[in-house]
């Protein structure tokens, strides 16, 4: 049997702009590889052999970077909706390519949660949809879930008002779905699985299981940086080539021996950093140029950004090919 995972990657990545204005979020580099690689590797480690990427926009750039998979990991397949159909609409659109039971994932989380346990739980409960759950302090940006004793969902509340803490368990954006449940999704319009489908399934086959491990939605600059530190400081299990000391400098970068790098810094392929520059708590994506004695703190530089000599950059997110001049 082919084990499939449908990954939703159609969002615009608005909250990560300007980083994502020219680079789709799934292929934005996180430490040493495109973000989506981590998801594919994680899915592969749970036995997934085909990943279907549900793209809301032209997948050429995505496919160019991620390829068709298959050598050591899952095969990759790309589907494009005619227009963004929402989280449920996108899954329904992919249904002709999906097996009777499959994983579905939001495409913007860095995680090592135990999907195999979720699959087993789903089968034991004979659920229609099972949600992987994760505890957070502030559920207001997520789908808040209350459970009954047997793991069935008592209440699903997307983006609850701040202060409405409930169980503190939120949907991790990782589901096991029986394709038959997609009958509930109306066709030919945008449909949100969180707003329109999960509430309908409450009391009718929707289950949730708290999963342990690491989980983070990387959809904002703050969380993108947190995920970066978590990888380079070894708080999440990934295949990234890091030594746990909190600094990653690509072997393809040219950094002056008279520059000071770190703590907590990533310097990607093709960057050049001049004498006396100081970079801390920051990420420099591919091909950035940093002049002599420039100081960069708490910032994210998209590919191709140049920072002139002697300039100080602090708490900034700079879009592709931007210039910071003296
Ligand atoms: N193909 C496709 N088409 N994908 C879409 C569409 C669409 O129309 N709309 C959104 N997506 C993708 C996004 O790219 C993202 O990977 C995923 O669906 C979820 O959308 P987000 O916009 O990131 O939602 P969110 O972070 O506010 O909330 C969701 O994730 C939380 C966990 O991170 C919800 O599922 C919450 O319930 C959940 O707690
Ligand atoms: Mg998200």
Radius of gyration: 21 Å
Counting H and I runs of at least 4 residues, what is the number of helices? Answer: 6
Distance between the termini: 60 Å
Q: What are the segments in which pLDDT stays under 50 over at least 5 consecutive residues? A: none
**What spatial order of strands do you see in the largest sheet?**
5-4-1-6-11-8-12
Dominant shape: elongated
* Biggest beta sheet summary: 7 strands, mixed
- Derived from helix and strand composition plus strand pairing, the structural class reads alpha/beta
Mean pLDDT across all amino acids: 95
The tally of strands reads: 27
The CATH topology name of the largest domain reads: Spore Coat Polysaccharide Biosynthesis Protein SpsA, Chain A
Portion of residues within helices: 10-25%
**What would CATH call the homologous superfamily of the largest domain?**
Spore Coat Polysaccharide Biosynthesis Protein SpsA, Chain A
> How many domains comprise the coordinates?
2
List keywords for this structure.
326 residues; alpha/beta; Spore Coat Polysaccharide Biosynthesis Protein SpsA, Chain A; UDP N-Acetylglucosamine Acyltransferase, domain 1; 2 domains; 7-stranded mixed β-sheet; 5-stranded parallel β-sheet; 6 helices; 18% helix; 31% strand; binds guanosine-5'-diphosphate-alpha-D-mannose; binds magnesium ion
């Amino acid at each position: 049997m082919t084990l499939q995972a449908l990954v939703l990657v159609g969002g615009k990545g608005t909250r990560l702009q300007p980083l994502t204005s020219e680079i789709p979020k799934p292929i934005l580099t996180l430490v040493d590889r495109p973000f989506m690689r981590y998801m594919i590797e994680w899915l592969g480690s749970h036995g997934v052999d085909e990943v279907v990427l549900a793209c809301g926009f032209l997948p050429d750039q995505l496919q160019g970077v991620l390829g068709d998979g298959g050598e050591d990991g899952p095969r990759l397949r790309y589907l494009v909706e005619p227009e963004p159909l929402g989280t449920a609409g996108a899954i329904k659109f992919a249904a002709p390519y999906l097996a009777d039971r499959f994983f579905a994932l939001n495409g913007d989380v860095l995680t090592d949660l135990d999907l195999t346990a979720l699959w087993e739980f789903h089968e034991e409960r004979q659920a229609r949809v099972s949600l992987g759950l994760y505890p957070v302090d502030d559920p207001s940006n997520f789908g808040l879930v209350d459970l009954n004793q047997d793991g069935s969902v008592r209440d699903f509340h997307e983006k609850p008002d701040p202060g409405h803490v409930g169980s503190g368990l939120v949907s991790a954006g990782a589901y096991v779905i029986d394709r038959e449940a997609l009958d509930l999704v109306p066709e030919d319009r945008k449909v949100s699985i969180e707003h329109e489908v999960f509430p309908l399934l409450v009391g009718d086959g929707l289950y949730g299981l708290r999963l342990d491990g690491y989980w983070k939605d990387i959809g904002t600059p703050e969380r993108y940086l947190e995920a970066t530190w978590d990888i380079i400081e070894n708080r999440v299990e990934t295949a990234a080539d890091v030594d746990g000391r909190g600094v990653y400098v690509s072997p393809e970068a040219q950094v002056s021996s008279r520059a000071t790098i770190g703590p907590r810094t990533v310097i990607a392929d093709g960057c050049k950093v001049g004498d006396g520059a100081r970079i801390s708590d920051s990420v420099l994506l591919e091909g950035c140029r940093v002049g002599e004695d420039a100081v960069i703190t708490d910032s994210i530089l998209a590919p191709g950004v140049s920072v002139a000599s002697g300039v100080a950059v602090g708490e900034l997110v700079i879009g592709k090919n931007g210039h910071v001049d003296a």
